[in-house]
C-alpha cells in the first residue's frame, strides 16, 4: 500500500515509452570531384555520406525519411489518442569504412541535421557501381530544401570507421508536429565545416542493427497523467477508509 500512497504524493512523474524505427527511404547525393556526379542517384546504396565542399571527391549530403504511423499508433494505444507529448528524439548512425573510391575518407568534423518541410523526394535505386537517372540527386536536392526547414542540431564526428553514435535532436515546432501527426518525416544531413568526411550504413545495409535508427520517447500529457494518478489515489484512499479497523 505504501507504493500507492507514494504515487499520490505531489511531484510524481509520468512513465515514458519509446518507439524505434528504421528509415522507409534514404539516399546520399554528391557533386563528385568536378560536379560530374551531380545528376546521379544513389538511393540503393548501402551507405550514407557527408562531406564538406572542396574535398577531393566532392561534397556529399544525405536524406532520410521515416514513417511516423507506427509511433503514433503505439503511443496512442499506451496513453490515449492525442494524449501524449514528445520527451526526446534521437538518431543513431553506424560509421563504416569507405569501400568505393567515390567516397572521401572518413575524417573528423562537424555536421548538421535539419527537418525538411518537403517530403516529396524519392529514394531511387542507384548505387556507386550502377548510378540511376531517377530519384533524388545533388542537382535536384535544392528543390526539396526551403527556408521553412528547421535545424535540429550540429554535432561532432570523430572520424571513426566503425561503431555507432547517437545524436539528440532538438524538438523544434514543425519537427515535433510531424512526429505527432503520424505522417512522413524527412531529415537532411550535411557538413557544417569543410573537413568532415562521414560514411555510415544506410537502410539497405545487410546488418539490421547497423541501419539508421530513430528513437522517439514520449510521455502522457501532464493533465492526463495527473487525472489518472488522482483517480488511483481516490480509489486507494476509499479502500483504506472502508477497511475494517481492529
Describe the 3D structure.
The chain has 246 residues and is of the alpha+beta class. 21% of the residues lie in helices and 31% in strands. It contains 5 helices and 11 strands, in the order αββββαββαββαβββα. The protein has a 5-stranded antiparallel sheet. The radius of gyration is 23 Å and the shape is globular. The chain starts with a helix and ends with a helix. Mean pLDDT is 90; it is low at 1-13 and 224-236.
Short description:
The chain is α+β, with helices and mostly antiparallel strands. The protein has helices at residues 2-7, 69-79, 138-141, 173-181, 222-242, and strands at residues 17-21, 25-30, 47-51, 60-67, 84-94, 109-116, 150-157, 164-168, 184-191, 197-201, 213-220.
Layout of helices and strands, plus pairs?
Elements: H1 2-7, E1 17-21, E2 25-30, E3 47-51, E4 60-67, H2 69-79, E5 84-94, E6 109-116, H3 138-141, E7 150-157, E8 164-168, H4 173-181, E9 184-191, E10 197-201, E11 213-220, H5 222-242
Antiparallel strand pairs: 1-11, 2-4, 3-10, 4-9, 5-8, 5-11, 6-7, 6-9
Structural classification: alpha+beta
Strand arrangement, major sheet: 2-4-9-6-7
| Main beta sheet strand tally, sense and closure | 5 strands, antiparallel
Strand content: 25-35%
- Relative helix content: 10-25%
Q: Looking at the structure, what is the overall shape?
A: globular
Number of helices: 5
- Distance between the amino and carboxyl termini: 17 Å
Rg, alpha carbons: 23 Å
How would you state the average pLDDT, rounded?
90
Number of strands: 11
Uncertain stretches of 5 or more adjacent residues = 1-13, 224-236
Order of helices and strands: HEEEEHEEHEEHEEEH
